[in-house]
């Protein structure tokens, strides 16, 4: 049979008291500290997850902004190309208009110079005809007769503008 020794009873009582004291003064605070640490770690994980979610959201926003910036820059480049092409066409058209104006002015100048030269030649031809007629007639009959002879000569020679020759 089991003998219960007084020493054994005291040891069991001591162990029970020690267990109760340890539970109250040691295990309780340690468990509370561990629970607090666990809550703090859980909060940090939650904050880390929130931060990661915000970072992902910001990354998506930045990617969207970058995409729209690329699209906008592409549109700006395309618009600049269209404007440059339109400006080049306007410049070419202005150059054509100026060239046409210069050509028309040059033709007008040529026509007026030709007319002036024809008038001078007619005058010279008229003088020569008058001198030739005066030599043939032998005398100077007068200015009125000279003019009528000049008119007759021009009529017989023909007007250069009538037949289109120069």
Automatic annotation (TrEMBL):
Residues 41-105 form a coiled coil. It is a single-pass membrane protein. CDD domains: ATP-synt_Fo_b. Keywords: ATP synthesis, Cell membrane, CF(0), Coiled coil, Hydrogen ion transport, Ion transport, Membrane, Transmembrane, Transmembrane helix, Transport. SUPFAM superfamilies: F1F0 ATP synthase subunit B, membrane domain. Belongs to the ATPase B chain family. HAMAP family: ATP_synth_b_bprime. F-type ATPases have 2 components, F(1) - the catalytic core - and F(0) - the membrane proton channel. F(1) has five subunits: alpha(3), beta(3), gamma(1), delta(1), epsilon(1). F(0) has three main subunits: a(1), b(2) and c(10-14). The alpha and beta chains form an alternating ring which encloses part of the gamma chain. F(1) is attached to F(0) by a central stalk formed by the gamma and epsilon chains, while a peripheral stalk is formed by the delta and b chains. This is ATP synthase subunit b. The gene is atpF.
